[in-house]
Design a protein that fits this description.
The longest helix has 17 residues. It contains 18 helices and 25 strands. It is elongated and about 70 Å long.
Protein backbone atom coordinates (compact mmCIF):
# COMPACT_ATOMS: atom_id res chain seq x y z
CA UNK A 1 0.00 0.00 0.00
CA UNK A 2 1.26 3.45 -0.82
CA UNK A 3 -0.29 6.87 -0.83
CA UNK A 4 -0.85 7.89 -4.46
CA UNK A 5 -1.98 11.34 -3.43
CA UNK A 6 0.90 12.39 -1.19
CA UNK A 7 3.66 10.52 -3.07
CA UNK A 8 5.63 10.15 0.15
CA UNK A 9 7.16 7.41 2.21
CA UNK A 10 4.54 6.75 4.86
CA UNK A 11 5.09 6.94 8.58
CA UNK A 12 5.31 4.11 11.02
CA UNK A 13 2.88 3.91 13.92
CA UNK A 14 2.88 5.83 17.18
CA UNK A 15 2.82 4.30 20.67
CA UNK A 16 2.19 5.82 24.09
CA UNK A 17 1.99 4.58 27.67
CA UNK A 18 1.45 6.17 31.09
CA UNK A 19 1.42 4.91 34.69
CA UNK A 20 -0.30 7.55 36.82
CA UNK A 21 -2.67 6.48 39.64
CA UNK A 22 -3.46 10.11 40.43
CA UNK A 23 -4.38 11.20 36.89
CA UNK A 24 -7.06 10.58 34.28
CA UNK A 25 -4.81 8.26 32.27
CA UNK A 26 -7.23 7.81 29.36
CA UNK A 27 -7.39 11.57 28.83
CA UNK A 28 -3.62 11.91 29.07
CA UNK A 29 -3.21 9.10 26.54
CA UNK A 30 -5.73 10.78 24.24
CA UNK A 31 -3.67 13.97 24.22
CA UNK A 32 -0.47 11.99 23.78
CA UNK A 33 -1.87 10.18 20.75
CA UNK A 34 -3.13 13.47 19.37
CA UNK A 35 0.47 14.72 19.40
CA UNK A 36 1.54 11.53 17.60
CA UNK A 37 -1.23 11.65 15.00
CA UNK A 38 1.29 12.36 12.21
CA UNK A 39 2.65 8.83 12.67
CA UNK A 40 -0.60 7.12 11.71
CA UNK A 41 -4.09 8.13 10.63
CA UNK A 42 -5.85 4.85 9.88
CA UNK A 43 -6.88 3.75 13.35
CA UNK A 44 -6.47 4.68 17.00
CA UNK A 45 -6.90 2.85 20.28
CA UNK A 46 -6.52 3.19 24.06
CA UNK A 47 -6.38 0.39 26.64
CA UNK A 48 -6.75 1.22 30.35
CA UNK A 49 -6.14 -0.99 33.38
CA UNK A 50 -7.82 -0.53 36.77
CA UNK A 51 -5.66 -3.20 38.42
CA UNK A 52 -8.21 -5.97 37.88
CA UNK A 53 -9.18 -5.80 34.22
CA UNK A 54 -8.18 -3.97 31.04
CA UNK A 55 -10.78 -1.96 29.16
CA UNK A 56 -10.09 -1.26 25.47
CA UNK A 57 -11.59 1.06 22.90
CA UNK A 58 -10.28 1.30 19.34
CA UNK A 59 -11.69 2.09 15.92
CA UNK A 60 -10.79 3.22 12.43
CA UNK A 61 -10.09 6.91 11.92
CA UNK A 62 -8.28 9.81 13.55
CA UNK A 63 -7.91 10.15 17.33
CA UNK A 64 -10.50 12.93 17.42
CA UNK A 65 -12.97 10.74 15.50
CA UNK A 66 -12.45 7.55 17.51
CA UNK A 67 -12.75 9.07 21.00
CA UNK A 68 -15.56 11.17 22.41
CA UNK A 69 -15.86 12.70 25.87
CA UNK A 70 -18.26 9.91 26.82
CA UNK A 71 -15.82 7.18 25.76
CA UNK A 72 -12.88 8.79 27.56
CA UNK A 73 -14.92 9.08 30.77
CA UNK A 74 -15.66 5.35 30.70
CA UNK A 75 -11.98 4.38 30.47
CA UNK A 76 -11.04 4.47 34.16
CA UNK A 77 -7.84 3.16 35.66
CA UNK A 78 -4.32 3.90 36.84
CA UNK A 79 -2.31 3.03 33.71
CA UNK A 80 -2.95 3.12 29.98
CA UNK A 81 -1.37 2.54 26.61
CA UNK A 82 -2.37 3.89 23.22
CA UNK A 83 -1.64 3.45 19.53
CA UNK A 84 -2.12 5.28 16.23
CA UNK A 85 -1.67 3.12 13.17
CA UNK A 86 -0.49 3.33 9.64
CA UNK A 87 -0.61 -0.14 8.11
CA UNK A 88 2.81 -1.37 7.04
CA UNK A 89 1.87 -5.04 7.35
CA UNK A 90 -1.70 -6.26 7.24
CA UNK A 91 -4.64 -4.51 5.67
CA UNK A 92 -6.28 -1.35 6.92
CA UNK A 93 -9.01 -3.18 8.83
CA UNK A 94 -10.62 -2.90 12.24
CA UNK A 95 -9.26 -6.34 13.21
CA UNK A 96 -5.73 -4.96 12.74
CA UNK A 97 -6.22 -1.86 14.89
CA UNK A 98 -4.19 -1.68 18.11
CA UNK A 99 -3.59 -2.05 21.03
CA UNK A 100 -4.09 -5.80 20.88
CA UNK A 101 -5.73 -7.25 23.99
CA UNK A 102 -5.58 -10.85 25.17
CA UNK A 103 -5.76 -13.00 28.26
CA UNK A 104 -2.92 -15.41 28.94
CA UNK A 105 -1.59 -17.51 31.83
CA UNK A 106 -0.52 -14.53 33.96
CA UNK A 107 -3.66 -12.43 33.33
CA UNK A 108 -4.61 -9.66 30.93
CA UNK A 109 -2.18 -8.20 28.44
CA UNK A 110 -2.33 -5.27 25.99
CA UNK A 111 0.34 -4.60 23.35
CA UNK A 112 1.02 -1.64 21.06
CA UNK A 113 3.73 -2.04 18.41
CA UNK A 114 5.60 0.34 16.13
CA UNK A 115 7.85 -1.26 13.54
CA UNK A 116 7.92 -4.36 11.41
CA UNK A 117 9.20 -7.89 12.00
CA UNK A 118 11.18 -9.44 9.17
CA UNK A 119 10.65 -13.08 10.18
CA UNK A 120 6.87 -12.86 10.68
CA UNK A 121 5.92 -15.65 8.28
CA UNK A 122 8.39 -18.09 9.78
CA UNK A 123 7.21 -17.38 13.33
CA UNK A 124 3.53 -17.43 12.40
CA UNK A 125 3.88 -20.87 10.81
CA UNK A 126 5.69 -22.28 13.86
CA UNK A 127 3.17 -20.82 16.28
CA UNK A 128 0.20 -22.00 14.22
CA UNK A 129 1.69 -25.50 14.06
CA UNK A 130 1.75 -25.49 17.87
CA UNK A 131 -1.87 -24.44 18.19
CA UNK A 132 -1.77 -20.64 18.16
CA UNK A 133 -4.80 -18.93 16.64
CA UNK A 134 -4.48 -15.65 14.75
CA UNK A 135 -7.34 -13.18 14.40
CA UNK A 136 -5.51 -10.47 12.45
CA UNK A 137 -2.98 -10.21 9.63
CA UNK A 138 -0.47 -8.02 11.47
CA UNK A 139 2.95 -9.04 12.72
CA UNK A 140 2.16 -7.53 16.13
CA UNK A 141 -0.09 -10.51 16.88
CA UNK A 142 2.94 -12.77 16.50
CA UNK A 143 4.53 -10.87 19.40
CA UNK A 144 1.40 -11.35 21.52
CA UNK A 145 1.39 -15.09 20.82
CA UNK A 146 5.07 -15.40 21.69
CA UNK A 147 4.53 -13.63 25.02
CA UNK A 148 1.64 -16.00 25.76
CA UNK A 149 3.84 -18.95 24.81
CA UNK A 150 6.28 -17.93 27.54
CA UNK A 151 3.46 -17.22 29.97
CA UNK A 152 4.91 -19.23 32.85
CA UNK A 153 7.63 -16.59 33.18
CA UNK A 154 7.24 -13.03 34.43
CA UNK A 155 6.22 -10.56 31.76
CA UNK A 156 9.77 -9.15 31.60
CA UNK A 157 11.25 -12.63 31.21
CA UNK A 158 8.66 -13.48 28.57
CA UNK A 159 9.64 -10.34 26.65
CA UNK A 160 13.31 -11.27 26.91
CA UNK A 161 12.59 -14.67 25.38
CA UNK A 162 10.42 -13.01 22.77
CA UNK A 163 13.29 -10.68 21.80
CA UNK A 164 15.46 -13.71 21.08
CA UNK A 165 12.87 -15.04 18.61
CA UNK A 166 11.83 -11.94 16.74
CA UNK A 167 13.90 -10.16 14.12
CA UNK A 168 13.33 -6.75 12.66
CA UNK A 169 12.30 -3.36 13.95
CA UNK A 170 10.12 -2.77 17.00
CA UNK A 171 9.27 -0.31 19.71
CA UNK A 172 6.74 -1.92 22.03
CA UNK A 173 4.55 -0.64 24.82
CA UNK A 174 3.08 -3.52 26.83
CA UNK A 175 0.58 -3.30 29.69
CA UNK A 176 -0.48 -5.83 32.31
CA UNK A 177 -2.99 -5.08 35.06
CA UNK A 178 -0.35 -3.30 37.14
CA UNK A 179 2.57 -2.17 35.00
CA UNK A 180 3.68 -0.58 31.76
CA UNK A 181 6.69 -1.92 29.88
CA UNK A 182 8.60 -0.34 27.01
CA UNK A 183 10.85 -2.36 24.69
CA UNK A 184 13.18 -1.13 21.94
CA UNK A 185 14.85 -3.48 19.47
CA UNK A 186 18.63 -4.02 19.68
CA UNK A 187 19.22 -1.73 16.70
CA UNK A 188 17.08 1.10 18.06
CA UNK A 189 15.51 1.41 14.63
CA UNK A 190 12.23 2.91 15.80
CA UNK A 191 12.22 5.75 18.35
CA UNK A 192 11.03 5.41 21.95
CA UNK A 193 11.56 7.74 24.90
CA UNK A 194 10.71 8.13 28.58
CA UNK A 195 9.22 11.22 30.21
CA UNK A 196 8.03 12.26 33.65
CA UNK A 197 4.90 14.17 34.60
CA UNK A 198 5.17 15.04 38.26
CA UNK A 199 5.97 11.69 39.86
CA UNK A 200 4.42 9.74 36.98
CA UNK A 201 6.29 8.13 34.10
CA UNK A 202 5.38 8.13 30.42
CA UNK A 203 6.67 6.19 27.40
CA UNK A 204 6.16 7.60 23.91
CA UNK A 205 7.38 7.29 20.34
CA UNK A 206 8.45 10.94 20.24
CA UNK A 207 9.26 13.65 22.75
CA UNK A 208 6.61 15.94 21.20
CA UNK A 209 3.98 13.79 22.99
CA UNK A 210 5.67 14.56 26.31
CA UNK A 211 5.69 18.28 25.53
CA UNK A 212 1.97 18.19 24.76
CA UNK A 213 1.29 16.99 28.31
CA UNK A 214 3.76 19.33 29.98
CA UNK A 215 5.93 16.33 30.87
CA UNK A 216 9.71 16.44 31.22
CA UNK A 217 11.85 14.45 28.83
CA UNK A 218 13.95 11.98 30.82
CA UNK A 219 15.84 10.00 28.18
CA UNK A 220 15.54 7.78 25.14
CA UNK A 221 15.03 4.08 25.69
CA UNK A 222 18.32 2.44 24.75
CA UNK A 223 18.54 -0.14 21.95
CA UNK A 224 17.90 -3.60 23.42
CA UNK A 225 16.50 -2.14 26.65
CA UNK A 226 13.36 -3.11 28.57
CA UNK A 227 11.96 -0.42 30.90
CA UNK A 228 9.24 -1.17 33.45
CA UNK A 229 6.96 1.39 35.10
CA UNK A 230 4.93 0.34 38.13
CA UNK A 231 4.31 1.36 41.74
CA UNK A 232 8.06 1.12 42.35
CA UNK A 233 8.80 3.74 39.69
CA UNK A 234 11.05 3.17 36.69
CA UNK A 235 13.36 0.16 36.41
CA UNK A 236 15.50 -0.96 33.51
CA UNK A 237 16.97 -4.14 32.07
CA UNK A 238 19.40 -4.15 29.18
CA UNK A 239 18.81 -7.67 28.02
CA UNK A 240 20.35 -7.85 24.55
CA UNK A 241 23.77 -6.36 24.01
CA UNK A 242 23.02 -3.55 21.58
CA UNK A 243 24.22 -4.11 18.06
CA UNK A 244 25.60 -1.17 16.16
CA UNK A 245 22.59 1.12 16.40
CA UNK A 246 20.58 1.72 13.25
CA UNK A 247 18.19 4.59 13.95
CA UNK A 248 15.88 5.15 10.99
CA UNK A 249 17.42 8.12 9.17
CA UNK A 250 14.04 9.07 7.68
CA UNK A 251 12.77 9.96 11.14
CA UNK A 252 15.03 13.00 10.84
CA UNK A 253 14.36 13.62 7.15
CA UNK A 254 10.56 13.39 7.21
CA UNK A 255 8.66 11.18 9.66
CA UNK A 256 9.15 12.77 13.08
CA UNK A 257 7.58 16.04 14.13
CA UNK A 258 10.07 18.94 13.87
CA UNK A 259 9.75 19.71 17.59
CA UNK A 260 10.85 16.22 18.62
CA UNK A 261 14.28 15.19 19.88
CA UNK A 262 15.34 11.66 18.93
CA UNK A 263 18.51 10.06 20.28
CA UNK A 264 20.11 13.39 21.03
CA UNK A 265 19.23 15.10 17.73
CA UNK A 266 16.67 17.89 17.40
CA UNK A 267 14.65 17.19 14.26
CA UNK A 268 14.01 20.82 13.28
CA UNK A 269 17.66 21.80 13.60
CA UNK A 270 18.74 18.71 11.65
CA UNK A 271 16.38 19.50 8.76
CA UNK A 272 17.53 23.09 8.64
CA UNK A 273 21.14 21.90 8.55
CA UNK A 274 20.25 19.55 5.68
CA UNK A 275 19.12 22.56 3.66
CA UNK A 276 22.30 24.42 4.53
CA UNK A 277 24.47 21.51 3.41
CA UNK A 278 22.43 21.17 0.22
CA UNK A 279 23.09 24.83 -0.63
CA UNK A 280 26.82 24.30 -0.10
CA UNK A 281 26.86 21.24 -2.33
CA UNK A 282 24.64 22.70 -5.04
CA UNK A 283 24.77 26.52 -5.25
CA UNK A 284 22.40 28.09 -7.76
CA UNK A 285 21.66 31.51 -9.18
CA UNK A 286 18.00 32.05 -8.47
CA UNK A 287 15.50 34.61 -7.20
CA UNK A 288 13.39 32.64 -4.71
CA UNK A 289 13.66 29.60 -2.44
CA UNK A 290 10.21 28.05 -2.03
CA UNK A 291 9.44 25.11 0.28
CA UNK A 292 7.01 22.35 -0.60
CA UNK A 293 4.84 22.54 2.54
CA UNK A 294 5.06 21.29 5.12
CA UNK A 295 7.90 18.81 4.81
CA UNK A 296 10.22 21.14 2.91
CA UNK A 297 9.96 24.24 5.12
CA UNK A 298 12.90 23.63 7.45
CA UNK A 299 15.17 22.54 4.62
CA UNK A 300 14.19 25.54 2.52
CA UNK A 301 14.97 27.87 5.41
CA UNK A 302 18.42 26.32 5.67
CA UNK A 303 18.99 26.53 1.92
CA UNK A 304 17.97 30.19 1.86
CA UNK A 305 20.17 31.04 4.85
CA UNK A 306 23.23 29.41 3.32
CA UNK A 307 22.68 30.58 -0.26
CA UNK A 308 21.49 34.12 0.46
CA UNK A 309 18.51 33.60 -1.86
CA UNK A 310 15.24 35.12 -0.65
CA UNK A 311 12.89 32.68 1.13
CA UNK A 312 9.24 32.89 0.14
CA UNK A 313 6.19 30.83 1.10
CA UNK A 314 4.86 30.94 -2.46
CA UNK A 315 3.31 27.47 -2.54
CA UNK A 316 0.13 27.52 -0.49
CA UNK A 317 -1.25 24.42 1.22
CA UNK A 318 -4.96 23.83 1.74
CA UNK A 319 -5.07 22.80 5.41
CA UNK A 320 -8.55 21.34 5.02
CA UNK A 321 -7.52 18.71 2.49
CA UNK A 322 -6.09 16.09 4.81
CA UNK A 323 -4.99 12.53 4.50
CA UNK A 324 -8.59 11.33 4.55
CA UNK A 325 -9.28 13.24 1.31
CA UNK A 326 -11.22 11.03 -1.11
CA UNK A 327 -8.85 9.14 -3.37
CA UNK A 328 -9.23 10.63 -6.85
CA UNK A 329 -9.75 8.76 -10.07
CA UNK A 330 -6.73 8.58 -12.37
CA UNK A 331 -8.14 11.39 -14.50
CA UNK A 332 -8.49 13.61 -11.41
CA UNK A 333 -4.96 13.22 -9.99
CA UNK A 334 -3.85 16.64 -11.25
CA UNK A 335 -6.93 18.21 -9.66
CA UNK A 336 -6.12 16.47 -6.38
CA UNK A 337 -2.68 18.10 -6.20
CA UNK A 338 -4.14 21.48 -7.15
CA UNK A 339 -6.65 21.20 -4.33
CA UNK A 340 -3.79 20.49 -1.95
CA UNK A 341 -1.16 22.95 -3.22
CA UNK A 342 -1.31 26.15 -5.26
CA UNK A 343 1.49 28.57 -6.27
CA UNK A 344 1.12 32.32 -5.78
CA UNK A 345 1.35 33.50 -9.36
CA UNK A 346 2.13 37.15 -8.62
CA UNK A 347 5.21 36.08 -6.66
CA UNK A 348 6.68 33.41 -8.95
CA UNK A 349 5.95 35.03 -12.34
CA UNK A 350 9.17 35.74 -14.19
CA UNK A 351 11.31 34.37 -11.34
CA UNK A 352 13.96 31.68 -11.15
CA UNK A 353 12.64 29.51 -8.34
CA UNK A 354 14.23 26.82 -6.20
CA UNK A 355 11.71 24.30 -4.86
CA UNK A 356 12.88 22.45 -1.74
CA UNK A 357 11.39 19.19 -0.51
CA UNK A 358 12.61 16.38 1.75
CA UNK A 359 12.37 13.51 -0.74
CA UNK A 360 11.09 12.26 -4.07
CA UNK A 361 9.64 8.75 -4.06
CA UNK A 362 7.61 8.20 -7.23
CA UNK A 363 8.06 11.64 -8.78
CA UNK A 364 4.45 12.14 -9.80
CA UNK A 365 3.67 14.94 -7.35
CA UNK A 366 6.99 16.70 -7.96
CA UNK A 367 6.19 16.74 -11.66
CA UNK A 368 2.77 18.30 -11.06
CA UNK A 369 4.21 20.97 -8.77
CA UNK A 370 6.89 21.90 -11.30
CA UNK A 371 4.20 22.18 -13.99
CA UNK A 372 2.05 24.40 -11.76
CA UNK A 373 5.01 26.70 -11.18
CA UNK A 374 5.55 27.04 -14.92
CA UNK A 375 1.85 27.66 -15.51
CA UNK A 376 2.06 30.54 -13.02
CA UNK A 377 4.88 32.05 -15.04
CA UNK A 378 8.06 30.87 -13.30
CA UNK A 379 11.05 31.48 -15.57
CA UNK A 380 13.08 28.55 -14.21
CA UNK A 381 12.15 25.78 -11.80
CA UNK A 382 14.91 23.95 -9.93
CA UNK A 383 14.14 21.07 -7.56
CA UNK A 384 16.33 20.62 -4.47
CA UNK A 385 15.93 17.55 -2.23
CA UNK A 386 17.30 17.48 1.32
CA UNK A 387 18.03 13.73 1.24
CA UNK A 388 19.78 11.33 -1.11
CA UNK A 389 17.66 9.46 -3.71
CA UNK A 390 15.40 6.72 -2.35
CA UNK A 391 16.54 3.59 -4.19
CA UNK A 392 15.40 0.68 -2.02
CA UNK A 393 12.26 -0.39 -0.11
CA UNK A 394 12.09 -0.35 3.67
CA UNK A 395 11.24 -3.57 5.52
CA UNK A 396 11.33 -2.12 9.04
CA UNK A 397 7.96 -0.44 9.47
CA UNK A 398 7.94 2.29 6.83
CA UNK A 399 5.69 1.88 3.82
CA UNK A 400 7.57 2.65 0.61
CA UNK A 401 6.33 1.93 -2.84
CA UNK A 402 7.40 -1.33 -4.40
CA UNK A 403 10.91 -1.17 -5.78
CA UNK A 404 9.72 -0.75 -9.36
CA UNK A 405 7.80 2.37 -8.30
CA UNK A 406 10.81 4.08 -6.71
CA UNK A 407 11.81 6.41 -9.51
CA UNK A 408 15.44 6.78 -8.40
CA UNK A 409 15.78 3.00 -8.40
CA UNK A 410 14.96 2.82 -12.09
CA UNK A 411 16.37 6.00 -13.58
CA UNK A 412 19.41 8.24 -13.40
CA UNK A 413 19.10 11.64 -11.77
CA UNK A 414 19.21 13.24 -15.22
CA UNK A 415 16.31 11.05 -16.31
CA UNK A 416 14.34 11.92 -13.16
CA UNK A 417 14.96 15.62 -13.79
CA UNK A 418 13.62 15.19 -17.30
CA UNK A 419 10.57 13.30 -16.02
CA UNK A 420 9.59 15.93 -13.47
CA UNK A 421 10.34 18.66 -16.07
CA UNK A 422 12.67 20.61 -13.78
CA UNK A 423 15.53 22.76 -15.06
CA UNK A 424 17.72 20.98 -12.56
CA UNK A 425 17.37 18.33 -9.87
CA UNK A 426 19.84 18.06 -7.00
CA UNK A 427 19.92 15.74 -3.99
CA UNK A 428 21.84 16.08 -0.75
CA UNK A 429 24.69 13.58 -0.61
CA UNK A 430 24.83 10.95 2.12
CA UNK A 431 28.00 12.60 3.43
CA UNK A 432 26.14 15.93 3.58
CA UNK A 433 23.25 14.28 5.40
CA UNK A 434 25.62 12.85 7.99
CA UNK A 435 27.20 16.26 8.42
CA UNK A 436 23.79 17.83 9.03
CA UNK A 437 22.99 15.17 11.64
CA UNK A 438 26.31 15.66 13.39
CA UNK A 439 27.52 12.09 13.09
CA UNK A 440 28.13 9.48 10.42
CA UNK A 441 27.33 6.32 12.38
CA UNK A 442 24.33 4.75 14.05
CA UNK A 443 21.75 5.18 11.28
CA UNK A 444 19.79 2.84 9.06
CA UNK A 445 20.23 4.14 5.50
CA UNK A 446 18.89 1.07 3.67
CA UNK A 447 16.39 3.03 1.59
CA UNK A 448 19.21 5.33 0.42
CA UNK A 449 22.03 2.87 -0.28
CA UNK A 450 20.53 -0.62 -0.12
CA UNK A 451 22.61 -1.64 2.90
CA UNK A 452 20.21 -3.38 5.29
CA UNK A 453 21.48 -3.55 8.90
CA UNK A 454 18.78 -6.02 10.00
CA UNK A 455 18.10 -9.30 8.23
CA UNK A 456 15.39 -8.97 5.59
CA UNK A 457 13.30 -11.51 3.66
CA UNK A 458 14.76 -12.85 0.39
CA UNK A 459 17.91 -10.85 0.89
CA UNK A 460 19.84 -12.84 -1.70
CA UNK A 461 17.25 -12.10 -4.36
CA UNK A 462 17.51 -8.39 -3.56
CA UNK A 463 21.29 -8.32 -3.48
CA UNK A 464 21.97 -8.09 -7.19
CA UNK A 465 19.60 -5.17 -7.70
CA UNK A 466 20.90 -3.37 -4.62
CA UNK A 467 24.50 -3.63 -5.80
CA UNK A 468 23.62 -2.45 -9.29
CA UNK A 469 21.64 0.52 -7.97
CA UNK A 470 24.33 1.48 -5.47
CA UNK A 471 26.93 1.40 -8.24
CA UNK A 472 24.77 3.69 -10.33
CA UNK A 473 24.44 6.14 -7.44
CA UNK A 474 28.23 6.23 -6.96
CA UNK A 475 28.63 7.25 -10.59
CA UNK A 476 26.31 10.16 -9.83
CA UNK A 477 28.26 11.25 -6.77
CA UNK A 478 27.41 14.91 -7.31
CA UNK A 479 23.71 13.93 -7.10
CA UNK A 480 22.73 16.78 -9.38
CA UNK A 481 21.41 16.87 -12.93
CA UNK A 482 20.26 19.59 -15.21
CA UNK A 483 17.50 19.25 -17.73
CA UNK A 484 16.71 21.84 -20.35
CA UNK A 485 13.21 21.40 -21.62
Amino acid sequence: MHNEFLDKMEEACGVFGIYAPNLDVARQTYYGLYALQHRGQESAGIAVSDGVSINLHKDMGLVSDVFTEEIINKLKGHCAIGHVRYSTTGASLMTNAQPLLCRYLQGNLAVAHNGNLTNTNELREKLAANGSVFQSTIDSEVIVNLIARYGQSTIEEALMKCMIDIKGSYALVVMTENKIIGVRDPFGNRPLCVGKLGENYIIASESCALDALGAKFVRDVEPGEIVTIDDKGLTSRRFLTPADSANCIFEYIYFARPDSNIDGINVMQARRAMGQELAKEHPLKADLVIPVPDSGIAGALGYAESSGIYFEMALMKNRYVGRTFIKPEQSERDLAVRLKLNPVGNIVKGKRVVLVDDSIVRGTTAKKIVRMMREKGAKEVHMMVTSPPVISPCYYGIDTSERNQLIASKYSIEEVAKYIEADSLCYLSLAGLYKALGRDKGFCTACLNGQYPIEIPDEQELGKHVLETSAKMKKEAKTCARHKG
